[in-house]
Specification:
Order of helices and strands: EEHHEHHHHHHHHHHHHEHHHHHHHH
Family: Belongs to the nucleobase:cation symporter-2 (NCS2) (TC 2.A.40) family.
Distance between the termini: 31 Å
Number of domains: 1
Number of helices: 22
Number of strands: 4
Structural class: mainly alpha
Radius of gyration: 21 Å
Pfam families: Xan_ur_permease
InterPro entries: NCS2, UacT-like, Xan_ur_permease
Helix content: 55-70%
Keywords: Cell membrane, Membrane, Transmembrane, Transmembrane helix, Transport
Protein name: Nucleobase:cation symporter-2, NCS2 family
Shape: globular
Strand content: under 5%
Largest sheet: 2 strands, antiparallel
């Protein structure tokens, strides 16, 4: 059960003790609380992101509640499949799944232009992209070195800043937009999340944003900003309805979502590598392939059941390293809890009632952390030569530019504008193309040869 020896990865010894290895099953008295801890670590992100998308494209309270309910259900099923695969689908690892932040900005763009049915059509049709990446990871990995992936992840955070600020002010178009109550409540949530994260350790640090949101809910009551009327009308149990909003297929929407799948595949590779690193080894080929295939397949299932694409959750990888509990059985329990919550509309209704400023204050932290992850990828794996600085600067400026000044593309046809107007697409494609076209120097070759994220499907590192 306990691994007493020192695990070695590369040249650095891993000093963390593994309390429960991947195949271990802790006793129920330990497994259940450990599963709840994983649930708490990922819950806010997988709950908040569907709300952000739903509100941004103008859905009402009932539809938002239903989509959130489906998001919890699909996240639970996907987590169980990653831990206990179905054929080739699943990594057989403790990988916690939830709604992917990578898709937030692209899906808001698609939904605002074409509607909800087009979102689900694109999610379903584009999902095989990630499945293919799983099978051909060695062939495509060279297109996405840390320079490119770091830029894309930074763009994910940067392009979501306007969304976070709008909700902090009360929500787009709100009559009370920017008033003191809204901004003050968002600031309270933000301050509590940062304070707990930076000045505490252990459990409080891990659930800092969740605690901040709970406090925000309570503070919203005397301000008259919490409306729980939808909770009373929500049922205690409901069965999922496939394609409740229909499905539509728009070529430009599919291309936007397909690019997001490529980005989230890179994120999943990193999370799988981090998970196996916690037990002192590199990921095996079947684990990488199974994890990516599960990402794609379960995201398609999410589209069928009115939810948004799923991906692995990095905060749970950190939780595994922190606790030394790498048991896939524990993570499967977390998945089972999510499934149960997904069948209870009242739970989703309480979460969906989150006041806009509370959502905004939490989003500032969450989206800001995404940006900081991108910075970390770049600074750890890239030498900042003049060539690389040029790629970073150009890609970021173009990506953010089309987001904050979309009218610059107003003369383009609607479908082309959706593609070119996505900051993730504009900046990401720019980074990929420039990285291929601009000649590499000696520092770039050294970075590529020492890239710690370059994994091969035979289980080793390149």
């Amino acid at each position: 059960m306990t691994r007493p020896d020192t695990a070695v990865r590369g040249d650095s010894p891993a000093t963390d003790i593994v309390e429960y290895d991947i195949e271990d099953k802790p006793p129920a008295g330990e497994a259940v609380p450990l599963g709840i801890q994983h649930l708490l670590a990922m819950f806010l992100s997988t709950a908040a992101l569907p709300i952000v998308i739903a509100r941004a494209i103008g859905l009402g309270a009932a539809d938002t509640t239903f989509i959130l309910q489906m998001a919890l259900l699909v996240a639970g099923v996907a987590t169980i499949v990653q831990a206990y695969p179905i054929g080739p689908v699943g990594a057989r690892l403790p990988v916690v799944m939830g709604t992917s932040a990578i898709f937030v900005a692209p899906l808001i763009d698609v939904g605002s232009q074409f509607g909800l049915a087009a979102i689900f059509g694109a999610v379903i049709v584009a999902a095989p992209i990630e499945v293919l990446i799983g099978y051909f990871i060695d062939d495509v990995r060279g297109l996405f070195p840390p320079l490119v992936t770091g830029i894309v992840v930074m763009l994910v955070g940067l392009t979501l800043i306007p969304v976070a600020m709008d909700y902090s002010a009360g929500g787009p178009g709100a009559a009370t937009y920017g008033n003191l109550e809204n901004v003050g409540l968002a600031a309270l949530v933000f301050a509590i999340a940062i304070g707990l994260n930076q000045f505490f350790d252990g459990f409080l640090k891990m659930v800092s944003v969740l605690v901040a949101v709970v406090v925000g809910y309570l503070a919203a009551i005397p301000l008259g900003l919490l409306d729980l009327s939808g909770v009373a009308s929500a049922g205690w149990f409901s069965v999922p309805t496939p394609l409740a909003y229909g499905v539509a297929f728009e070529p430009s929407a599919i291309l936007v979502v397909a690019f997001a799948y490529i980005v989230t595949a890179i994120e999943t590779i990193g999370d799988i590598s981090g998970t196996t690193e916690s037990v002192g080894r590199d990921p095996e080929g079947r684990e990488l392939k199974g994890g990516l295939v599960a990402d794609g397949v379960m995201s398609a299932v999410a589209g069928v059941f009115n939810a948004f694409p799923n991906t692995s959750f990095s905060q749970n990888v950190g939780l595994i390293s922190f606790t030394g509990v790498a048991s896939r059985y524990v993570v499967a329990l977390c998945g089972a809890m999510l499934v149960v919550l997904g069948f209870v509309p009242k739970v989703a209704a309480v979460i969906a009632a989150m006041p806009n400023p509370v959502l905004g204050g939490a989003a500032i932290v969450l989206f800001g952390m995404i940006f900081s992850v991108g910075i970390r990828i770049v600074t750890r794996g890239v030498t900042l030569t003049q060539r690389n600085l040029t790629i970073i600067a150009t890609s970021i400026v173009l990506g953010v530019g089309v987001e904050v000044r979309p009218d610059v593309l107003s003369s383009l046809p609607d479908e082309v504008r959706l593609l070119a107007g996505s900051g993730l697409i504009a900046g990401g494609v720019t980074a990929v193309v420039l990285n291929v076209v601009l000649p590499a120097d000696e520092a770039d070759v050294r970075d590529r040869d020492s890239d710690p994220t370059a994994v091969s499907t035979d289980g080793g590192q390149e």
